[in-house]
Amino acid sequence: MSDKSDFATRRGVLRGLGATASAVAVSGVSSPVMASMHSDVTVTIDNVGASAWELTAVDGSDGVADIDTRNPTLELTTGTRYRFENEGYSGHPLAFRDARNQALLSQEETGRFEDNDTVGWMDDGTAVAFTVTEELAAELNQYICTVHLSMIGGIETVDPTPDEPPAAVSLSTQDTVGDKVLVEQVRLDDGGFVAIHDSSVIDEDPVESVIGVSEYLQSGSREELVVDLDTPLESATSPIAIPHRDSNGSQEFDFVDSGGDQDGLYRDQAGDVITASAEVTPVDYQPEESEVRFEAPSDGATTQSPVSVAFETDNFIVEPTSAGVTDGAGVLHLLIDRELYAPGETIPETETSIRYADGQQQAQIELDPGTYTLRVQAGDARHNAYDVGDTVEVTVAAATETETGSDESTSSGTATEETAGSEMDASTPTPTEDSAPGFGIIGSLGGISGAVLYAYRRITRRARL
Predict the structure, then answer these.
(1) What is the rounded distance in angstroms from the CA atom of residue 406 to the CA atom of residue 345?
(2) In this structure, is the dihedral angle defined by the CA atoms of residues 101, 106, 111 and 117, taken in order, positive or negative?
(3) Are 330 and 372 in contact (CB under 8 A)?
(4) Cα Rg for the chain, rounded, in angstroms?
(5) Is 110 within a domain?
(6) Is residue 268 located within the same domain as residue 337?
(7) For residue 451, what pLDDT is reported?
C-alpha cells in the first residue's frame, strides 16, 4: 500500500475518533452519524482497463445503477450511508466531485466534505464510506478516477421514499342493507381488526364509539371486507373505519372490554390515527309494494331450448348497474334451480345465477331436456338482493324427429311426388266447353308436355338421391 493510502487510512481513523468525540460532546443536542465503515448500501466498483468504471455488485438496494455497465450514472439517496469497495484502487483512485470538477470526497485528493462529521467520510485504502447528507447531495455531480479521466460517470441524488404507514383503510360512499358496512380496502402490516366507529370517536370516548368490528384479520391486504354493525343504521350517516392492532395476540377484539388498554388504534409515523370515512345510506331491501314476476314462461309450461324468458315489474325500476345504487331500483337476476337470496346478500354470477347488468328484461337461455325451477330476483347495482322475486316450474322437452329431420322429410319420395303432382296440375290447362276450336289439341299437347316434365323431374330427383 502506498504512503498516500497509509495516510488516508490514518486520516480516516482520526476523523472517525473525532466524529465519535463530537457525537458524545453534543449527545444531548444532536446525533450526527458516527463515522465508520458500516453502511446501508455497499457498492462494488471496478475498472475496465483504463477507460471506464463498472459496478459489479450492489447490496442493500435495488437501485444505485445497472451492473456491468460502463460508467453508469449513480443514483444516491439522501440520508443513506454508502460503502464503495474499489477493487481497482491501486491504479484507479476514486473521487466524488461537484459540477465545477472540485473534489468533495477523494481517495487521493483532499475533498472539502471529508471533515464533515455528519458525512462521516472513511477511507481504509480499498474502500470508502460516507453518508449522503442534504448538503452533500446538493453538490454531488460526478465520480471519477483521478488518474484516468475517461473513467467518469454522473451522479443523481434523490430524496428517500417516505416510509409507508403500518396500515391503510378506505371506504366509499355506499348504500347498505343497514346492518353492514363495506370496507373497500384494508391493509394491516401486523394483523388485527377493522372497527367501525360513529362520529363520537373524534371528540368523545373512542371506546363507546365502536358500533361494529370485523373478524380477526391476518397481516396483509383485503378487499371488500363486510363489517357487521351491532345496531342497524336508521338514516344516512358517515361512520369512521379505523384499523386496530391485536396488541395482546388473542385474535379477539378486546379494545372495548379493556377500556381501550388493549388492541389500540393503528397510527402513522406522525402519530395520527389512521382512518377512513364515507357516507353510508341504509337501503330498504324488503320493500312491501315492489314486485317482479315472469311474463314468460308460465308456471308449469313445457317448452324447448332455447327457452325464452321475459320479466315484468311493479313499483321497481329496472336500470343498468351503471346508474349506481338507488333505493327501489336495480337489475334482475335469473336463478336456475337455486333458492332466492336473503335481503342484502350478494347474488353471484355463475352458470346458474345470471346477472342482467344492462337492465335486460328478456333473454333466451339454452337448457338440456328436463324439469327446472326458474326464479327471478331483483338486486341493486352491486347485485345485493332485494326480497323481491318470483318462481316458475318449466319442462324442457327434447326436439321432435319432425323438427330435427324436416329437410329429410321434404325430400322423401311421397312428399316429392305430391309436390310434383301439384306442379303438374298447376301447369296443365283444363279445356272447357267454350274452348275455341283447336284448343283441345293444344291442351292435349300441354298435358303430354306436363307428363314429360313430371317424369323428367322424378328421374332427376331420384338421380340426386
Answers:
(1) 48
(2) positive
(3) no
(4) 43
(5) yes
(6) no
(7) 42
